[in-house]
Amino acid sequence: MFTLQRQCAMPAGPATGENLGEQLLNRVASSAIRRLFSQAESVEVSIRCNPPAKLLQGSVDSFRMDGRGLVIRRQFRTESLSFEAENIALDFSAVMQNQSIRLKQPAQALAQVVLTEADINQAFTAELVARRLRQVSLPELDAQPVDFENVHLELLRGNRVRLEAWTCFADGSRIPMQFTTTLELERRRRVLFTNPLLDCPPVDGSNERGEACARAFLNLLNSLVDLDRFGLDGVALRLNRLETQSGRLVFSGYAQIDHFPRKS
Question: Which helix (H) or strand (E) segment is 118 a member of?
Fold first, then answer.
């Protein structure tokens, strides 16, 4: 379901040029935002302007988008995603002529992203991620390749997480691993798993082999979660803060919006 709220105060009576312009902008904006996602349970857009005639000049006082159940690249679900920006300048002639939104200059928006445990664990099974977990070379073990399978994450208090996984060797042997780590941000775009603590030391008759698997798994995770790999068309997310909250992982930061998605 896609809903749109228009909050520009309009006078009662017959439709005016400003009224028609607002309706056109709302329709084009909703279509552009829809193209950012493979699927959406709900999206609400609120555009505020005063006076309404500013729309014809390409000036918007504020813009807010709130979405739930948004799927990116057909595989990565977010529980919720919100953007909020002020003083946006756009080329209204593009709206009139091409039914598209063209920004006169990039806009910055406050952003919040919420993931659930289920969202995160489902992401580990997505092909883009799963293929990175297969045939991982372990230099400490003569570069023999291994697969990491059955990855499961549990969110804990204080930005801590518990991770479980299996290391699978070509000869069919398997090593279980369980860690508790801390989530941290690096350069506002990467999520790191730091301060690892082995809750369940690997058991396969060789501590050296098990520890090598553990190090390789954590190193792989720390190269995996980079926002630039999962970017939206025309939107770059940068994070200032993360927090675990009752089975949810909440990211706060800002979004650099360079352009709205083009019409396909």
Answer: helix 117-123
Of 201 and 176, which is predicted with more confidence? 176
- For 104-137, give one letter per residue: b (16+ CB within 10 A) or e: eeebebebbbbbbbebbeebbeeeebbeebeebe
Give per-residue burial for 36-52: e unless 16+ CB within 10 Å, then b. Answer: bbeebeebbbbbebeeb
User: Closest Cα to residue 122, out of 87, 88, 77?
Assistant: 77
Q: How far apart are CA 130 and CA 9, in angstroms?
A: 50
* Residue at 46: amino acid letter: S
Q: How far apart are CA 169 and CA 91, in angstroms?
A: 57
| pLDDT score of 138 | 78
- pLDDT above 60: residue 155: yes
Contacts of 71 (CB under 8 A, 6+ apart): 37, 38, 39, 40, 77, 78
129 touches 149 (CB < 8 A): no
What's residue 7's pLDDT?
Answer: 39
Q: Structure pTM?
A: 0.83
The amino acid occupying position 185 is: L
Token couple for 32: 């552009």
The residues, ordered by sequence, that sit 6+ positions from 57 with a Cβ below 8 Å of its Cβ are 92
Which tokens in the block code for residue 178? 């369980």
Contact (CB, 8 A) for 159 and 182 = yes
For 59-70, give one letter per residue: b (16+ CB within 10 A) or e.
ebebbbbbbbbb
Q: Write out the H or E segment, with its range, that includes residue 176.
A: strand 174-186
CA distance 158 to 163: 15
Radius of gyration of the chain measured on its C-alpha atoms: 23
In this structure, the strands spanning 190-200 and 174-186 are antiparallel
